[in-house]
């Protein structure tokens, strides 16, 4: 259950659900502070058409937390950047910015367990919503976006126990690449799906190890 905490960084009192074993709490505003700009700057300038390649580079940054909504920003940015660079969907930097801002509003750390909606799912949803021009007043565009989000959630649900943002980013981008092909007739390259995860020792709840398809693999 949520309880009142005081943020260790800014001192703000907040109702939260997640703290470290010693009771230390970081509010959502301070968690990953400054990293939104880091993600945005990179995805705007990268020339890669491979969303997994983009995401892996960002997730490997020492400043990116193992768990948290920063991974949702990476997911949205990686997919939109890859689509922009591939060219067919005519994605613009303004659309990338919009997808990231929408993701930032809905991706909240820990809510994969607290509500069943991992922020990576609305991150993918934000991308397709921007591309389709979906709004609450529209029919097909919004319905299609919702079905895509449900599909991403189904993909993520197969990977829980405990939840892992790195796994969720990869699985969601692989699935999103299939959806891009189906919905936009765009083929994005996935040069290396056979990823060997470098983050196993960082997981605060313990890595799933052999239960995760990225554990202990040899890179191509």
UniProtKB/TrEMBL annotation:
Xref: InterPro entries: DUF5714 (IPR043768)
Protein name: DUF5714 domain-containing protein
Domain DUF5714: 39-215
A Pfam family hit: DUF5714
Taxonomic placement: Bacteria, Bacillati, Bacillota, Clostridia, Eubacteriales
Top-level lineage group: Bacteria
